[in-house]
Amino acid sequence: MWLKCISCGKEYPPEAKIYTCPSCNSLLDVVLDYAEVSNNVSWSLFKARAFKVWRYREFLPIEKDECIVSLGEGGTPLYRCDKLAKWVGIKDLYVKYEGANPTGSFKDRGMTVGVSKALEFKAKIVACASTGNTSASLSAYAAKAGLKCLVLLPAGKVALGKLAQALMHGAEVVAIKGNFDDALKLVIKLSMERDVYLLNSVNPWRLEGQKTLAYEVVDQLGFVPEYVAVPMGNCGNISAIYKGFKELSITGLADATPKMIGVQAEGAAPVVEMLEKGLNTLRPIEKPETLATAIRIGNPINWPKAINAIRESKGIAIKVSDAEIIEAQKAIARLEGLGVEPASAASVAGLKKLVEHDKIPRDAQVVAVCTGHLLKDPEEVVEVSEKFKEIEASMDELEKIVSAKL
User: Fold this and answer.
1) Domains recognised in the chain with CATH numbers
2) pLDDT tier at 159, thresholds 50, 70, 90
3) Which entry of 63, 131, 221, 381 is 20 to 30 Å from 17 by CA?
């Protein structure tokens, strides 16, 4: 395996402790020797192992097994959602429920590989900027690995469910007077000046864990879906998932790749606007705003990888309003019993909008990735749900409610 710049093509050895290309400062990708991997993988081999991220060990770039840090991540449910499919307007809809990961979000897939790589590099301190889920995940895996953890958060912009996790796992949490993009600039600079290992998604090793969602989807379905819808914040996940599908195809474990659907919130949709306007570069949004805190990012660092994934797969990018996100969040919960945070619901909201505008066929097979658990953002749930009633401890009062409402 080696690192390769996605822009200039320059290659670097795996022991190079770098996050971006030293020559042109572009993003890096991890490249495996796929001819060798092909000779060592099969579905029968994978199915003999536990259904978790490390089931697909041959695709994961950790050289020393003793450095692997795991909390049993991955192996998340893939639900066939017929009632939700009818609400969206399509024939076959599956929800990949990433809220079932150990810390309640898809970030655990990346952190098991990222923190394992930190141990291979003999790091003592790991750090990240976060809108919440990254901090929750990194703090847990750092605790498991015995590493010190520093987290930078935008003050007043992180849901309590996520902040509570970072605090409980013992991270050094610092809130800055700025947004996520400001926090990321600071932590990148810190990692370059101090012996601190950065674990935001600019780190190419971390994204290697996130690609395992693609392997699991094919493992569970037995085929490659036509479309996969993913919420986009810092934009690493959609490119990682698409890479996973491509690797299955390259190594002969699948015969197709899906079209990728990237969904952003209207108040934080620079990638969608770039594609809609036919621009060659991203125009950052200085003050991104959306109730979907996990994707409230105006200058996503992985936008080139996301653009490549959408274009190469002949996919689609779409933005949805906060109202559409809330509507989808309620539909997912009330039709299928699945509680997801607002950013997760964006994937389903985007699908519904695309169907309504005849952008995808109604007989399509679609997997919607729901990235985080409902309890990640309890304040939002209380805010958007119907208010509960408080009554005297009286049967008469209770009968009035039952008669009127049930």
Assistant:
1) 1-31 (no CATH), 78-102+206-384 (3.40.50.1100)
2) confident
3) 131
